[in-house]
Amino acid sequence: MMNDDQLLRYSRQIMMPEFDITGQEKLLDANVLIIGAGGLGCPVALYLAAAGVGSLTICDHDQVDLSNLQRQIAHTTRDLGKDKVISLTESIHALNPDTHVNAITRKLKGEELAEHVKHATVVIECTDNFPSRFLLNSFCVQHGKPLVSGAATGFNGQVAVFNAKPEAPCYNCLYSDVDEQQLSCSETGILSPITGVIGTLQATETIKIIAGIGKPLDGKLMVFDGLTMDVRTMGLAKDPECRTCSS
User: Fold this and answer.
1) pTM above 0.85, yes or no
2) Would you say residue 193 lies in a domain?
3) What per-residue string of b and e applies to 194-219 under the rule 16 or more CB within 10 Å gives b?
4) Structural domain contains residue 164
5) Residue 105 lies in a domain
6) Which listed residue, of 1, 78, 155, 243, carries a Cα 20 to 30 Å from 64's Cα?
7) pLDDT tens across 122-164, in order?
């Protein structure tokens, strides 16, 4: 049961009939796994903490660099050289000290990653490379966990939700392993607010999934163009030959 401080802190969400106290309690009981504490991971984690997600497990093995500060909004100049996860955790606790953060400053692999996926309510992919995405996707399929995926580069971004249901597509249905040559932000550049747009969309989808409200982007891909402000949403089909979810 929520205390008086929590009822006041989350009152603007609780007053929405679709959300109500039931939705808030679901957030407080949730454990969200976030892989990546950079351009996407920062707004994702901050908004989920602000919204009242009870526990966040955040994994990133990188440190804060000067070039990160243009878009990775949880980090500041005084955090240069600090582990990104530690910097992000400090920003989260400054915003909401009640949010429990499990900060992992190394790259999770194999069974250790699988174990964290297994115990997560929702998994959020905020990385910038295909091998990590494919691995995370495979564990989400294996353990039946919803995966909220995001990507941003240049003026563009995209968000997709894979709910790990037998009839639904997975990330590997959308992108095959031959796509591993995708360029990163350090190679193509990125407009500062684009990561914020995509990260907040990921946070919104995560909250909807946890609270059981609205219509998440299950089996859909939303594509955002920051130059034209065009937003397109496309349905995704399950690949009957996908080696991850169709075996």
Assistant:
1) yes
2) yes
3) bbbbbbbbbbbbbbbbbbebeebbbb
4) yes
5) yes
6) 155
7) 999 999 888 889 999 999 999 999 999 999 999 999 999 999 8
